Amino acid sequence: MNLKQTLRSALLPALFLPLAALAAEAPNKAIAKVNGVNIPHSRFDLVAKSQISQGQEDSPQFREDLREVLITREVLTQEALKRKLDKDPSYTAQMDVMKQQILLGMLFEDFIKKHEPTETALRQEYDKVKAENDKAGRREYLSRHILLKDEATARAVIEQLHSGGDFAEIAKEKSVDPGSAHKGGELGWSEPERFVGPYGEALKKLKKGEYTKEPVQTQFGFHVIQVVDERAPAFPEYDSVKDQIRQSLISKARDEYVDSLRAKAKIEKIGSVGAAGSDKK
Fold first, then answer.
1. I need a surface site. Which of 19, 134, 145, 170 has the fewest CB within 10 A?
2. How far is CA 74 from the centre of its chain?
3. Does the CA dihedral 155-160-164-169 come out positive or negative?
4. Cα dist from 66 to 10, 14, 53, 89, 262, whole Å
5. Whole-number pLDDT of residue 16
6. What is the residue-averaged pLDDT of the chain?
């Protein structure tokens, strides 16, 4: 499929709903004329910018193909108007939804411009979240385990550890977990919640260097678990989460704005909104 065919398939079948942010102040001139009707340059620029924003490479060929697509759209639009399809109730309903979508896009674009978080606000939010995280007392553990198929074997391993056996060497010899046995049973740093329930709960009860004195059963078998070390999880650096914080603050401000407008509006719900046709007798 060539570029022209791709554009046709992308733009002809469905309603094109451009983002308000892509609107351009183009000169008031036409790129073509169909049966005496101008196709304005502003329409061309709007569609072109939308396509480019979605990854389309800008090129002279792309622009010529797009002109042809818009000419075809105008031909088809004129035919639809001849058939008075613009008088169809379905057209009116779709245009109503379309106008709302465009207006909402413009409203929120304007809102974001006026509520862009300052660097101070972003820093304050980062510090607040970091403080909450620190206060929560979250911990992560460097653990290792020996996985056995049955409880009796697990208890025998615990007795071997009681007698001074080396945890890592026993894991290499007896653990049935192929992913960790060759590493002495080590599973790396992780928070308890990332493990299956019984394993995670056992971790939280152990201190550095301790191992479970009873086998811990999960759906994988029977574990003997040791905590090698523990620490507070590293909190991400400000620059790595700055964009997320910005989005979060904007979303919060937007939601509060919507709620305030709804609170001030006089709203009256009318009739039923059951399944289509359910009100028909």
1. 134
2. 37
3. negative
4. 11, 16, 15, 30, 42
5. 42
6. 88
Nearest Cα neighbor of 78 from 119, 123, 38 is 38
Q: Give the distance between the most distant pair of CA atoms in the chain.
A: 97
Q: Which of 126, 165, 122, 127 is nearest to 146 (CA)?
A: 165
Q: Does the structure show a pLDDT above 70 at 28? A: no
* DSSP reduced 3-state for 5: helix
User: What are all long-range contacts of 95-101, with beta carbons under 8 Å and residues at least 24 apart?
Assistant: 98/15, 98/17, 101/17
Cα(108)–Cα(240) distance, rounded to whole angstroms? 26
Which are the contacts of 109, defined by CB distance < 8 A and separation ≥ 6? 20, 21
Dihedral angle over CA of 57, 63, 64, 70, nearest 10: 120
Q: Which of 78, 237, 216 is nearest to 157 (CA)?
A: 216
**DSSP E strands, 149-241:** 186-190, 216-218, 221-231
Ranges of CATH 3.10.50.40 domains, the chain: 138-231
CA–CA dist 51, 45 (Å, integer): 10
Nearest to 218 by CA among 203, 192, 199, 200: 199
Query: Tokens 């289509």 label which residue?
Result: 276
Using the predicted structure, report yes or no on whether residue 281 has a pLDDT greater than 80.
no
Q: Are 144 and 167 in contact (CB under 8 A)?
A: yes
Q: What is the CA radius of gyration of the chain?
A: 32
